[in-house]
Design a protein that fits this description.
With 332 residues, the protein is α/β, with parallel strands linked by helices. Helices cover 53% and strands 9% of the residues. The chain contains 15 helices and 5 strands. Strands 2-3-4-1-5 form a 5-stranded parallel sheet, sandwiched between helices. The longest helix is centred in the C-terminal third of the chain and has 20 residues. The protein is elongated, with a radius of gyration of 23 Å. The model has no long low-confidence stretch (mean pLDDT 91).
Protein backbone atom coordinates (compact mmCIF):
# COMPACT_ATOMS: atom_id res chain seq x y z
CA UNK A 1 0.00 0.00 0.00
CA UNK A 2 1.00 3.64 -0.40
CA UNK A 3 1.06 6.64 1.92
CA UNK A 4 -0.42 10.11 1.65
CA UNK A 5 3.12 11.48 1.38
CA UNK A 6 3.41 9.70 -1.96
CA UNK A 7 0.32 11.47 -3.27
CA UNK A 8 1.65 14.90 -2.29
CA UNK A 9 4.40 14.35 -4.86
CA UNK A 10 1.75 13.75 -7.55
CA UNK A 11 1.13 17.48 -7.59
CA UNK A 12 -1.35 17.32 -10.48
CA UNK A 13 -3.65 15.00 -8.48
CA UNK A 14 -3.28 16.31 -4.94
CA UNK A 15 -5.60 19.36 -5.35
CA UNK A 16 -8.44 17.03 -6.38
CA UNK A 17 -7.77 14.86 -3.32
CA UNK A 18 -7.90 17.97 -1.14
CA UNK A 19 -11.25 19.05 -2.57
CA UNK A 20 -12.75 15.60 -2.02
CA UNK A 21 -11.59 15.29 1.60
CA UNK A 22 -12.69 18.85 2.36
CA UNK A 23 -16.16 18.05 1.00
CA UNK A 24 -16.43 15.04 3.33
CA UNK A 25 -15.22 17.03 6.34
CA UNK A 26 -17.84 19.68 5.55
CA UNK A 27 -20.56 17.03 5.47
CA UNK A 28 -21.02 17.11 1.70
CA UNK A 29 -19.25 13.89 0.76
CA UNK A 30 -20.95 11.56 -1.72
CA UNK A 31 -21.28 7.82 -1.18
CA UNK A 32 -20.21 7.04 -4.78
CA UNK A 33 -17.31 8.81 -6.47
CA UNK A 34 -16.67 8.25 -10.17
CA UNK A 35 -13.00 9.02 -10.85
CA UNK A 36 -12.15 9.45 -14.52
CA UNK A 37 -8.47 9.50 -15.37
CA UNK A 38 -6.16 8.80 -18.30
CA UNK A 39 -4.32 5.50 -17.97
CA UNK A 40 -0.92 5.50 -16.21
CA UNK A 41 -1.68 8.75 -14.42
CA UNK A 42 -1.53 7.65 -10.77
CA UNK A 43 -5.26 6.98 -10.33
CA UNK A 44 -4.63 3.69 -8.50
CA UNK A 45 -2.43 5.44 -5.93
CA UNK A 46 -5.05 8.19 -5.61
CA UNK A 47 -7.86 5.73 -4.89
CA UNK A 48 -5.86 3.71 -2.37
CA UNK A 49 -4.96 6.81 -0.36
CA UNK A 50 -8.52 8.13 -0.46
CA UNK A 51 -9.81 4.72 0.68
CA UNK A 52 -7.46 4.73 3.67
CA UNK A 53 -8.57 8.25 4.58
CA UNK A 54 -12.22 7.21 4.51
CA UNK A 55 -11.49 4.24 6.79
CA UNK A 56 -9.22 6.09 9.23
CA UNK A 57 -10.54 6.57 12.79
CA UNK A 58 -8.61 9.79 13.41
CA UNK A 59 -8.49 11.35 9.95
CA UNK A 60 -6.88 14.75 9.70
CA UNK A 61 -7.77 17.51 7.27
CA UNK A 62 -5.91 16.01 4.33
CA UNK A 63 -4.45 12.70 5.44
CA UNK A 64 -5.11 9.54 7.38
CA UNK A 65 -3.42 9.39 10.76
CA UNK A 66 -1.39 6.31 9.79
CA UNK A 67 -1.42 4.98 13.36
CA UNK A 68 -4.95 3.82 14.22
CA UNK A 69 -5.98 0.18 13.88
CA UNK A 70 -7.80 0.90 10.60
CA UNK A 71 -4.70 2.47 9.04
CA UNK A 72 -2.50 -0.37 10.25
CA UNK A 73 -4.82 -2.98 8.79
CA UNK A 74 -5.04 -1.07 5.53
CA UNK A 75 -1.30 -0.61 5.21
CA UNK A 76 -0.81 -4.35 5.75
CA UNK A 77 -3.41 -5.07 3.05
CA UNK A 78 -5.62 -6.93 5.51
CA UNK A 79 -8.49 -4.52 6.20
CA UNK A 80 -11.69 -6.61 6.25
CA UNK A 81 -13.90 -3.68 5.19
CA UNK A 82 -11.90 -2.65 2.13
CA UNK A 83 -12.92 -4.40 -1.09
CA UNK A 84 -10.78 -4.01 -4.20
CA UNK A 85 -12.34 -5.33 -7.40
CA UNK A 86 -10.56 -5.43 -10.76
CA UNK A 87 -10.82 -7.52 -13.90
CA UNK A 88 -8.46 -10.40 -14.49
CA UNK A 89 -6.43 -10.15 -17.68
CA UNK A 90 -8.61 -10.91 -20.68
CA UNK A 91 -11.80 -11.09 -18.60
CA UNK A 92 -14.62 -8.84 -17.44
CA UNK A 93 -15.79 -8.12 -13.90
CA UNK A 94 -18.61 -10.62 -13.46
CA UNK A 95 -21.91 -10.34 -11.66
CA UNK A 96 -20.61 -12.95 -9.19
CA UNK A 97 -17.81 -10.53 -8.21
CA UNK A 98 -20.36 -7.78 -7.52
CA UNK A 99 -22.85 -10.02 -5.73
CA UNK A 100 -20.13 -11.31 -3.42
CA UNK A 101 -19.23 -7.78 -2.35
CA UNK A 102 -22.87 -6.72 -2.03
CA UNK A 103 -23.48 -9.66 0.28
CA UNK A 104 -20.58 -8.59 2.49
CA UNK A 105 -21.76 -4.98 2.50
CA UNK A 106 -25.16 -6.05 3.84
CA UNK A 107 -23.50 -7.23 7.04
CA UNK A 108 -22.18 -5.04 9.84
CA UNK A 109 -18.75 -3.54 9.41
CA UNK A 110 -16.20 -5.86 10.99
CA UNK A 111 -14.31 -2.88 12.38
CA UNK A 112 -17.36 -0.77 13.29
CA UNK A 113 -16.20 1.98 10.95
CA UNK A 114 -16.73 2.63 7.25
CA UNK A 115 -16.73 0.18 4.36
CA UNK A 116 -15.02 1.09 1.08
CA UNK A 117 -15.40 -0.59 -2.30
CA UNK A 118 -12.79 0.29 -4.90
CA UNK A 119 -13.61 -0.89 -8.44
CA UNK A 120 -10.58 -0.43 -10.63
CA UNK A 121 -11.65 -0.22 -14.27
CA UNK A 122 -15.40 0.02 -13.74
CA UNK A 123 -15.83 -0.01 -17.54
CA UNK A 124 -14.89 -3.73 -17.36
CA UNK A 125 -18.19 -4.61 -15.66
CA UNK A 126 -20.44 -6.93 -17.61
CA UNK A 127 -23.93 -5.58 -18.25
CA UNK A 128 -25.36 -7.83 -15.55
CA UNK A 129 -22.66 -6.76 -13.08
CA UNK A 130 -23.28 -3.08 -13.87
CA UNK A 131 -27.00 -3.49 -13.23
CA UNK A 132 -26.34 -5.26 -9.93
CA UNK A 133 -23.99 -2.46 -8.88
CA UNK A 134 -26.54 0.13 -9.94
CA UNK A 135 -29.11 -1.19 -7.48
CA UNK A 136 -26.61 -0.93 -4.64
CA UNK A 137 -25.65 2.61 -5.65
CA UNK A 138 -29.33 3.56 -5.51
CA UNK A 139 -29.78 2.12 -2.01
CA UNK A 140 -26.38 2.36 -0.27
CA UNK A 141 -25.86 1.01 3.21
CA UNK A 142 -24.76 3.42 5.94
CA UNK A 143 -21.09 4.44 6.00
CA UNK A 144 -20.41 2.59 2.75
CA UNK A 145 -18.42 4.34 0.03
CA UNK A 146 -17.72 3.42 -3.59
CA UNK A 147 -14.66 4.56 -5.51
CA UNK A 148 -15.29 3.79 -9.18
CA UNK A 149 -12.24 4.37 -11.36
CA UNK A 150 -12.44 4.45 -15.14
CA UNK A 151 -10.32 5.52 -18.08
CA UNK A 152 -11.39 8.73 -19.80
CA UNK A 153 -11.67 6.95 -23.15
CA UNK A 154 -14.35 4.50 -22.01
CA UNK A 155 -18.10 4.98 -21.93
CA UNK A 156 -20.23 3.95 -18.96
CA UNK A 157 -23.95 3.43 -18.50
CA UNK A 158 -25.69 6.77 -18.09
CA UNK A 159 -27.51 5.34 -15.08
CA UNK A 160 -24.19 4.80 -13.26
CA UNK A 161 -23.10 8.34 -14.11
CA UNK A 162 -26.31 9.74 -12.67
CA UNK A 163 -25.81 8.05 -9.30
CA UNK A 164 -22.21 9.10 -8.80
CA UNK A 165 -20.32 12.28 -8.14
CA UNK A 166 -17.89 12.78 -11.02
CA UNK A 167 -14.28 13.81 -10.43
CA UNK A 168 -11.76 14.22 -13.25
CA UNK A 169 -8.12 13.45 -12.49
CA UNK A 170 -5.98 15.71 -14.71
CA UNK A 171 -2.68 14.94 -16.39
CA UNK A 172 0.38 16.89 -15.23
CA UNK A 173 1.60 19.88 -17.16
CA UNK A 174 5.12 19.81 -18.56
CA UNK A 175 6.79 21.36 -15.51
CA UNK A 176 5.00 19.03 -13.07
CA UNK A 177 5.79 15.95 -15.13
CA UNK A 178 9.48 16.77 -15.61
CA UNK A 179 9.91 17.59 -11.91
CA UNK A 180 8.30 14.31 -10.84
CA UNK A 181 10.30 12.23 -13.31
CA UNK A 182 13.58 13.77 -12.20
CA UNK A 183 12.58 12.96 -8.61
CA UNK A 184 12.24 9.34 -9.73
CA UNK A 185 15.87 9.41 -10.87
CA UNK A 186 15.51 10.12 -14.61
CA UNK A 187 17.85 12.85 -15.92
CA UNK A 188 16.27 15.82 -17.68
CA UNK A 189 17.28 14.97 -21.24
CA UNK A 190 15.82 15.31 -24.71
CA UNK A 191 14.88 11.62 -24.52
CA UNK A 192 12.79 12.28 -21.41
CA UNK A 193 10.94 15.12 -23.15
CA UNK A 194 10.27 12.96 -26.22
CA UNK A 195 9.03 10.10 -24.03
CA UNK A 196 6.71 12.49 -22.20
CA UNK A 197 5.29 13.90 -25.42
CA UNK A 198 4.80 10.53 -27.11
CA UNK A 199 2.90 9.31 -24.02
CA UNK A 200 0.66 12.40 -23.89
CA UNK A 201 2.20 13.41 -20.53
CA UNK A 202 1.07 10.24 -18.78
CA UNK A 203 3.82 9.99 -16.14
CA UNK A 204 3.83 6.26 -15.40
CA UNK A 205 3.64 5.37 -19.10
CA UNK A 206 6.61 7.68 -19.64
CA UNK A 207 8.64 5.78 -17.04
CA UNK A 208 7.84 2.52 -18.81
CA UNK A 209 8.89 3.99 -22.17
CA UNK A 210 12.20 5.18 -20.76
CA UNK A 211 12.91 1.83 -19.13
CA UNK A 212 11.98 -0.12 -22.27
CA UNK A 213 13.91 2.12 -24.65
CA UNK A 214 10.77 2.94 -26.60
CA UNK A 215 12.02 6.30 -27.90
CA UNK A 216 14.61 4.54 -30.06
CA UNK A 217 12.16 1.73 -30.92
CA UNK A 218 9.57 4.26 -32.10
CA UNK A 219 12.12 6.03 -34.31
CA UNK A 220 13.18 2.73 -35.90
CA UNK A 221 9.56 1.67 -36.44
CA UNK A 222 8.55 4.93 -38.10
CA UNK A 223 11.57 4.73 -40.37
CA UNK A 224 10.24 1.35 -41.49
CA UNK A 225 6.84 2.95 -42.05
CA UNK A 226 8.53 5.37 -44.43
CA UNK A 227 10.08 2.44 -46.32
CA UNK A 228 6.64 0.80 -46.41
CA UNK A 229 5.16 3.99 -47.87
CA UNK A 230 7.89 4.22 -50.50
CA UNK A 231 7.83 0.55 -51.54
CA UNK A 232 4.10 -0.12 -51.04
CA UNK A 233 5.13 -3.54 -49.74
CA UNK A 234 3.58 -4.67 -46.45
CA UNK A 235 6.60 -6.87 -45.74
CA UNK A 236 8.60 -3.69 -45.16
CA UNK A 237 6.48 -3.00 -42.03
CA UNK A 238 4.47 -6.06 -40.95
CA UNK A 239 7.46 -7.94 -39.41
CA UNK A 240 8.23 -4.89 -37.27
CA UNK A 241 4.91 -5.06 -35.38
CA UNK A 242 4.98 -6.77 -31.99
CA UNK A 243 2.07 -8.97 -33.00
CA UNK A 244 1.44 -10.22 -29.46
CA UNK A 245 0.62 -6.59 -28.61
CA UNK A 246 0.68 -4.28 -31.66
CA UNK A 247 -1.31 -1.47 -30.00
CA UNK A 248 1.84 0.46 -29.07
CA UNK A 249 3.03 0.61 -32.68
CA UNK A 250 -0.43 1.63 -33.86
CA UNK A 251 -0.39 4.45 -31.32
CA UNK A 252 2.94 5.64 -32.75
CA UNK A 253 1.52 5.54 -36.26
CA UNK A 254 -1.63 7.37 -35.21
CA UNK A 255 0.37 10.18 -33.62
CA UNK A 256 2.59 10.50 -36.70
CA UNK A 257 -0.36 10.61 -39.11
CA UNK A 258 -2.29 13.00 -36.85
CA UNK A 259 0.63 15.43 -36.87
CA UNK A 260 0.88 15.05 -40.65
CA UNK A 261 -2.82 15.81 -41.02
CA UNK A 262 -2.43 18.85 -38.76
CA UNK A 263 0.47 20.02 -40.92
CA UNK A 264 -1.62 19.59 -44.07
CA UNK A 265 -4.34 21.73 -42.48
CA UNK A 266 -1.88 24.43 -41.43
CA UNK A 267 -1.92 23.54 -37.73
CA UNK A 268 1.60 23.65 -36.32
CA UNK A 269 0.98 23.40 -32.57
CA UNK A 270 0.19 20.46 -30.32
CA UNK A 271 2.25 17.97 -32.33
CA UNK A 272 3.23 14.68 -30.70
CA UNK A 273 6.14 14.08 -33.10
CA UNK A 274 8.09 17.33 -32.87
CA UNK A 275 11.31 15.29 -33.01
CA UNK A 276 10.19 13.91 -36.40
CA UNK A 277 9.13 17.23 -37.90
CA UNK A 278 11.17 16.77 -41.08
CA UNK A 279 9.47 13.46 -41.87
CA UNK A 280 6.05 14.90 -41.07
CA UNK A 281 6.58 17.90 -43.33
CA UNK A 282 7.88 15.71 -46.17
CA UNK A 283 4.76 13.51 -46.09
CA UNK A 284 2.57 16.62 -46.00
CA UNK A 285 4.04 17.59 -49.37
CA UNK A 286 3.28 14.19 -50.88
CA UNK A 287 -0.22 13.27 -49.65
CA UNK A 288 -3.34 15.50 -49.54
CA UNK A 289 -5.23 16.02 -46.29
CA UNK A 290 -8.09 13.70 -47.33
CA UNK A 291 -5.69 10.79 -47.91
CA UNK A 292 -3.99 11.44 -44.59
CA UNK A 293 -7.38 11.40 -42.89
CA UNK A 294 -8.22 8.09 -44.58
CA UNK A 295 -4.93 6.64 -43.36
CA UNK A 296 -5.61 7.83 -39.84
CA UNK A 297 -9.07 6.23 -39.94
CA UNK A 298 -7.59 2.90 -41.07
CA UNK A 299 -5.08 2.88 -38.20
CA UNK A 300 -7.81 3.68 -35.67
CA UNK A 301 -10.05 0.91 -37.05
CA UNK A 302 -7.18 -1.57 -36.79
CA UNK A 303 -6.73 -0.67 -33.14
CA UNK A 304 -10.46 -0.93 -32.44
CA UNK A 305 -10.62 -4.37 -34.07
CA UNK A 306 -7.60 -5.61 -32.14
CA UNK A 307 -9.09 -4.47 -28.84
CA UNK A 308 -12.63 -5.67 -29.44
CA UNK A 309 -12.45 -8.87 -31.52
CA UNK A 310 -11.41 -11.96 -29.59
CA UNK A 311 -10.03 -15.14 -31.10
CA UNK A 312 -8.89 -13.54 -34.37
CA UNK A 313 -5.32 -13.78 -35.65
CA UNK A 314 -3.88 -10.36 -34.90
CA UNK A 315 -1.43 -10.61 -37.78
CA UNK A 316 -4.36 -10.87 -40.20
CA UNK A 317 -5.92 -7.68 -38.81
CA UNK A 318 -2.66 -5.78 -39.10
CA UNK A 319 -1.93 -7.13 -42.60
CA UNK A 320 -5.43 -6.25 -43.79
CA UNK A 321 -5.04 -2.71 -42.48
CA UNK A 322 -1.68 -2.24 -44.19
CA UNK A 323 -3.12 -3.47 -47.49
CA UNK A 324 -5.92 -0.90 -47.15
CA UNK A 325 -3.29 1.79 -46.52
CA UNK A 326 -1.61 0.89 -49.81
CA UNK A 327 -4.82 0.67 -51.85
CA UNK A 328 -6.77 3.59 -50.39
CA UNK A 329 -4.08 6.02 -49.25
CA UNK A 330 -0.82 5.47 -51.11
CA UNK A 331 -2.27 4.43 -54.49
CA UNK A 332 -5.92 5.48 -54.38
Amino acid sequence: MVSTAELTHLTWLYPVYQRITQAFLAGHGHHALLLRSPNDNGAEIFCQILAQWLLCEHKQAEQACGHCRQCQLFQHQSHPDFYWISAEKGKKISIENIRDVIDKLSRHSQQSTAKVVYIQGVEQLTEAAANALLKTLEEPTENCYFLLQTDVEHQLLATIYSRCQLWALPLPNQAQAVKWLTEQGFPQTEELQIALTMNYYRPFATINSLKQGEVAQRLAFLRQFWKFYRSKNILMLLPYFQLENPITQLNWLEAFLMDTLKGALGIHTGWQCQDLRQGVETLVQQLPALKLYQGLSIIRQMRTDLLSINGVNQELIVADGLIKMIEEVFEG
